[in-house]
Amino acid sequence: MSKPFANDDPNLDNCPYDLEGFMAKHGLSREAAKVILHTNGPSRARCDYAAEAFLHFKRLRQARLKPEAPSIKA
Question: By CB distance 3.0 to 4.6 Å, which of 23, 53, 55, 68 could disulfide with 33?
C-alpha cells in the first residue's frame, strides 16, 4: 500500500515537507502553509503541531465572530 505523502516516514522528521503535500495534509491555504513551513521547518513534527495549532485558533476565532442566535422569549 502506498503512502499518500512521499516522505511520511516518522524516521524522516528532519526531511522537510513539500508545500503541496503539507497543504493537502492539513487543508491549509498556500500562504498559511508557506508561513508555517518557513517558521517551523525542517522538523515535520513541529510543522504538524504548528498547523494543528493554527487551525484550532482559526476555528476559535470563527466561532467568536458568529452572530448570537436570536432569542425566542415570549
Answer: 23
